[in-house]
């Protein structure tokens, strides 16, 4: 959800630089002020909402906001509570956003447009800032954590009149579920490790998140043709990159196999890669060599034969692997391993 005052700012490289992560912790406040501070947080946000404590014990919450312009991403960890957006709050201010929300742990329910859905593990749900909604988080014990992202509807460039059919419905978001799974992984990674990214990284991630959300909605609206062509190609490349990384160990990985898995022609696949200044086969080889290089430098794998490492990353011939490795890193695999093993001792 999106929220406003009583933030603690966290900026890349320390204070004085751009603040791209903000954190609210009820535990930082006296017990008697915590619920009031949370009311202020949600009531004065860009998307005004009302908070209702559903727990018998005092309300506790931690809210982290990460700026992925043009999207707003938020992680909320809270004791049982409801977040409401009423007609009155909509009249107070409406940023006209489409939001996606998913549970990291605990229970999550979303109600909007006459529907109520329980969002389970490996699922997500959509809701709209221009319609009343209720979001409930519940936990058998402790706190429930959810992650949400909010995008201006106009930027999605999709038929907005049809969004209503997707609101408050459980959509697949687990591993291997397509755009939902990719979006879930990106959002949970960003909110979990925001301090590892530079501001320029987050700006790039904002564009990727926007493209994934657009593709997710378009897919479920059966409106792939309405996705702007550059966004569609960018999202397809993200899916292809993920597929390649998951299958680097498979010696059968090839441009033909990748094209078949994504229902496109090999020539279309090569056209997608052309702006990168490399070929599909070269990209696969580079990634395999990098994984093998890491294994050769890993002290825990010193006893693993070089040919086993080569096979582990999809190389079928030892001589082919040795030549490619020497060309990439200036030394044969065995010499590279000895050099990296000797470097710590020399230091």
Keyword list:
eight-stranded antiparallel sheet; 347 residues; single chain; Arc Repressor Mutant, subunit A; 22% strand; 2 domains; alpha+beta; five-stranded antiparallel sheet; globular; Jelly Rolls; 11 helices
Overview of the structural elements:
The chain has 347 residues and is of the alpha+beta class. The protein has two domains: 8-223, Jelly Rolls (Sandwich), CATH 2.60.120; 255-346, Homeodomain-like (Arc Repressor Mutant, subunit A, Orthogonal Bundle). It is 39% helix and 22% strand. The chain has helices at 34-43, 87-92, 179-192, 199-220, 229-246, 255-261, 266-273, 280-296, 306-312, 318-329, 333-346; strands at 8-11, 19-25, 50-53, 61-68, 71-78, 81-85, 97-105, 107-112, 115-118, 123-128, 133-138, 144-152, 171-172. The radius of gyration is 24 Å and the shape is globular.
């Amino acid at each position: 959800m999106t929220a406003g005052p009583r933030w603690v700012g966290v900026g890349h490289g320390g204070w004085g630089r751009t603040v791209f992560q903000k954190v609210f912790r009820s535990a930082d406040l006296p017990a008697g002020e915590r619920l009031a501070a949370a009311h202020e947080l949600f009531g004065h946000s860009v998307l005004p909402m009302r908070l209702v404590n559903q727990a018998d014990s005092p309300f506790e919450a931690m809210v982290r906001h990460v700026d992925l312009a043009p999207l707003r991403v938020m992680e909320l960890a809270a004791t049982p509570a409801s977040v409401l957006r009423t007609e009155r709050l909509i009249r107070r201010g409406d940023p006209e956003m489409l939001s996606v929300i998913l549970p990291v742990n605990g229970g999550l329910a979303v109600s909007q447009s006459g529907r109520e859905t329980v969002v389970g593990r490996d699922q997500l749900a959509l809701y709209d800032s221009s319609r009343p909604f209720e979001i409930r988080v519940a936990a058998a014990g402790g706190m429930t954590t959810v992650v949400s992202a909010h995008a201006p509807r106009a930027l999605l460039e999709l038929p907005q009149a049809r969004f209503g059919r997707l609101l408050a419905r459980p959509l697949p978001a687990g591993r291997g579920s397509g755009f939902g799974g990719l979006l879930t992984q990106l959002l949970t990674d960003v909110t979990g490790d925001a301090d590892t990214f530079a501001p320029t990284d987050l700006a790039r991630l904002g564009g990727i998140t926007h493209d994934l959300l657009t593709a997710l909605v378009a897919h479920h609206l059966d409106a792939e043709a309405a996705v702007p062509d550059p966004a569609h190609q960018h999202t397809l490349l993200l899916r292809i990159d993920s597929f390649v990384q998951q299958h680097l160990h498979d010696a059968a990985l090839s441009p033909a196999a990748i094209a078949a898995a994504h229902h496109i022609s090999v020539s279309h696949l090569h056209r997608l890669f052309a702006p990168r200044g490399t070929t599909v086969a070269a990209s696969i080889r580079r990634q395999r060599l990098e994984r093998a290089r890491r294994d050769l430098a890993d002290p825990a794998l010193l006893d693993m034969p070089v040919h086993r490492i080569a096979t582990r990353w999809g190389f079928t011939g030892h001589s082919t692997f040795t030549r490619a490795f020497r060309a990439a890193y200036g030394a044969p695999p065995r010499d590279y391993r000895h050099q990296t093993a000797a470097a710590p001792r020399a230091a």
